[in-house]
Amino acid sequence: MLLPAHLAHISVQQDWQHSAPYPPLGFNPFSEGALGNGDTYGLYWPIGREASEPIVVETWHDEWRLQPNFSSLAAFLRAHAAAGDAEDEDEEGYVALPTLADDPASPRAAFLAARESIARQNPAAAIALLEAALALLPEYTDALALLHGQYVRAGRTDEAVRVAIQAIISPPSFGGPPLKALQWLRTQPVPQTERDPIWRACGQLSLNFGGSKENADYPVLLAAIDTYLEQGNYRCASTLMQTYAELMSAETVSFQERYGFDPATFIARQLAVSAALPQGSRDPARLWSNGLA
Questions:
Q1: Given a cut of 90, is residue 176 above it in pLDDT?
Q2: Cβ atoms 138, 47 nearer than 8 A
Q3: pLDDT band at 159; cut points 50, 70, 90
Q4: Per-domain boundaries in the chain
Q5: Contact at 8 Å (CB) between 32 and 250?
Q6: What CATH number does domain 7-86+102-290 carry, 1.25.40.10, 1.10.150.20, 3.30.70.330, 3.40.50.12780?
Q7: Average pLDDT for residues 93-98, to the nearest whole number?
Q8: Which residues, in sequence order, are bridge partners of residue 67?
Q9: Exposed, middle or buried, 190 (CB in 10 Å: 0-12/13-18/19+)?
Q10: How confident is the model at residue 9 (pLDDT cuts 50, 70, 90)?
Q11: Starting from the edge strand earliest in sequence, which strands make up the sheet with 41-44, in order?
């Protein structure tokens, strides 16, 4: 993973280890901007973009969410400096969510602007904003779900299928669940030559989790992970593995035991699979050795 410019301006937790599925693999916290409520900012390398500089996300730990507020560390540092100069004492130290004027590539700002464009009946602008956000953060579940709806309305069926699948495999830490995308995907005829395991098995998925002793979605998701690995599609496999880990970690311990889920073992497997990603491993232990893992 490529370390960002201006790294000397933040206090990164260099001994960070992923002991639980949340925050997800690819996240590394730093202390600047933290308000003392348990949430923090951190660097995050999107899946498949490990050779690019990270974005900066904010944790919402009560909701097990990450908000992709800043497109780069440089953009965060500008906002952090502005927070320190705030005239209002109540606002001093609070790093505000950027607008697109502040950070034109902010995934979160683009998502919010896209919702406003949809409300103003401007779907073309919304699509452009969402596509830009997803170019930077392909696993941005909320943006994927919103873009899917716009593609469907525009009659762009092939793109809607692709985005629906990506939304389904993307982690709940970035939004979801994309129930409408799943329901729509079920209505689409699956080509006989289709290789994607999620599209082929979407009729077996509900995306409803928690509150039951059994859930047939989990074996389907595990089988899809195995298929992606067999196909050499390590980006989709890594994405769905993160999703599976987050979903399973929200279940009870007894549920996890019934399904043979051990967080430490699964995270170790995630790290091993990530080593096959085209742009490199997501192992934080390798991050600080030479600046490029």
A1: no
A2: yes
A3: very high
A4: 7-86+102-290
A5: no
A6: 1.25.40.10
A7: 85
A8: 58
A9: middle
A10: very high
A11: 27-30, 41-44, 55-60, 65-70
Pick from 191, 192, 188, 146: which is nearest to 166 by CA? 146
Burial class (CB in 10 A: 0-12, 13-18, 19+), 179: middle
pTM of the model: 0.93
Find all residues with CB under 8 Å of 52, minimum gap 6, and list them: 2, 45, 46, 279
Query: What are the distances in angstroms from CA 25 to CA 11, 151, 185, 288?
Result: 19, 30, 28, 15
- Here the tokens at position 21 are 């599925």
Res 177: pLDDT: 94
Q: Classify residue 290 by its DSSP letter.
A: H
**220-226 average pLDDT score:** 98
Give me the helices (H) in the chain, please.
73-84, 107-119, 123-136, 141-153, 157-169, 179-186, 197-201, 217-230, 234-249, 253-258, 263-274, 287-290
